[in-house]
Design goal:
Length: 288
Amino acid sequence: MDKKNNNIRLVKNGGRRVTGSDYTPENDELSGSELLKRKISYQKRQKERRIQKKRRRTFLVIVACIIIVLILLFLTPIFNIRTISVDGNEAVSDEQIVERLRPLIGQNLLRTGNGKIENMLKEISYIQDVNVQKRLFPPSVELTVTEYSPAAVIRSGGKNYVISSNLRVLDELQTSTGSLPVITGVEIERADIGYDCEIKSDKGGTLRIMLQTLEKTELIHNVNEINITSLTAITMNYDDRLTVQCGSQLDMEMKIRMFREAVTREELSNNAHGTVDLSETGNAIYIP
C-alpha cells in the first residue's frame, strides 16, 4: 500500500467498512459473539430509523389531509347555509324571524357561530332563549326559540307597555288589551322595548313578585287590574267580581298562594262577588 493510503486500513465489521478513524486495535481481537451483538445493534438502529421515517411520512400525509378537509369545510361554498327552520315561536311571526335571519343564507355553516345566531334573534324583544342545531347534510340551521310570555300592561304617561313577569318591556300598544292585567299606580322612569322596565321608587320589586307568583299559580289571566298606588294598600281586581285587598307588600307571594286556595272553595265559585281580604298574613277573609 502506498504512502498516500497508509493511514487507511479496512477491516470486516458486520458487513461494513471501517475507516482508520473508526478503527481501534481491539477490533482485531473481537470475538464472534461481540461482532454479532454489534451487527444486531446496527440493524436495530437502522430499523428504528426506517420506522421514524415512515412515521414522519404518515404524519405529513395526515396534516395534508386535515388541511384539505379544513379548506373544504371553511373556504368552499359546499357547506354554505341553505335553509333555516324555526320552531317554538307564537308571539313572534314567522315573517319577522325569516327577515331577521335572511343574512345567514349563503354564509359558511361552520364559520357562523351559535352565539351570532342567538344574538340576531334575541334582538327581537319577545325572544328569551334560542337553541341552535346545525346540520351538515344538507347545510342547514334548526332553531328552537323560547319566548317571554306577556304578563301585564303598564299604563304610564299616556302609553301602554306590555311587560313580562320579570318586567321586560315586550311591546308598546296604542290601547291596552283586555286579556292582560293592567298595572296602575306606578310611574315609569324608562321603558325601552327589549329591556327591563325601570319603575320609580321600590314598587318594581313588589310588582315582579306579584306577576311571577300569579303566573306560577295560573291566576294571571283572570286578573284584570293590579293597583300599587300605595305599597301599604295594594289591591287586585279578579275576574271583574272579586276585589282582593293584599295590604302591604310583605309576604306577597304567600298571600297570592292563599288567595288561589280561597278561589277554589265552594263559597268563592264563579258566581261569588265581593271582597277577599288578605291584608292579615295567614288569613283570607271573604266579604260578600
